[in-house]
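dude i think i finally got it to work??
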Amino acid sequence: MTTVRIKELPQHVGEKVTVNGWLYNKRTSGKLQFPIVRDGSGYLQCVVFKKEVDEATWNSVEQVTQESSVRVTGSVRAEPRAPGGVELGVESFEVTQLTQDYPITPKEHGTAFLMDLRHLWLRSSKQHSVLRIRNEIEKSIRDFFYDRDFVLIDSPILTANAAEGTSTLFETDYFGEKAYLSQSGQLYLEPAAAAFGRVYCFGPTFRAEKSKTRRHLMEFWMVEPEVAFLEFEGLQDLAEEYVEYIVGRVLERCQEELKTLERDVSKLENVKRPFPRITYRDAIEVLKKNGIEAKFGDDFGGDEETVIANSFDKPVMISRYPVEIKAFYMQPDPQDPQVALGLDMIAPEGYGEIIGGSQRIHDHDLLLQRIKEHNLPVEAFQWYLDVRKYGTFPHSGFGMGVERVVAWLSGVPHLRETIPYPRMLNRIYP
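look at this
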């Protein structure tokens, strides 16, 4: 007997197969029972006709409970109305473990309750769909960079350096010395760009921000490309091409998941190059027109980003922020030294910043000056300065938080549903 995963069943119409999985739901209509089985790859409508099975099989289906483990054997039939376009005419239905009192039922549950049961909530159809979309996004990221000859560099998670400022670092003891959980792999990518030309890293990053907003997590995954001899205009082109590619992949390969989440895909279908590009000074004018007080030197929060994003129907890139509110390594604009050659890409529909990047300072003395101005320990950054000492070169890169992109493409309001086990200000369980 062939054991088949549910997603493969359309290739087995007319055959007798076995499916292993869990009971997702069931309904009964007199002498017919319809258990819905899931196996992680899809959902299968099973049809149990009392006249066609023995009494033990009928009773097993009657008694099976939500999330019990089951092994089902029967014939695959085409059924356009069923999930996946097929159903299984059941011949045997074996309960391999009967679940008692599964805590997540079809009724409404509070978020705190569901988060305490995150290890079980992952099985629910919407959570399952969000994480399948995440899986596709992560695969598309790797494909995008691999196909363009970027080399994956695994940056360290334990570091002696701060990339984005010391106030949001998780500190740990490293055999008597201070070490920190990485905020970004960027600093380590820049030397690698001198070795390979085009590089990226992809891994967990950590920010000890005492923030409870729906846009923040303490631990999140970031992808960061860095490209030698790429200047600012080319960086904006790369960011556009990259985001268009990811959105296209999700639209192409996650249709069922988007349907389950009731996502309005027309808004995603509009994400095509070119994206609108405005400067920070333009953005201030947009805010003023919308009744929000803003002046040069202000940083934008979530509310301001949403107002700016709502002025456009696709992601918008804001460039040339004031030097003093951006990171120490950003290249000043030679035409306007008050601003940095940096960009933020803001997603539509209130999902906030999804990409932040810049051209990097490649002049040794200017970078040394900026490290001192930011009161950073020069000796801890000597290796970083070396990149400018031995064959310096213009280079640019950006970082993208995976969870914000998953939230945007899935249409879920909070980042806690975009990562299997979220780490938030007051949550480290489970």
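The chain has a mean pLDDT of 95.
im so relieved honestly
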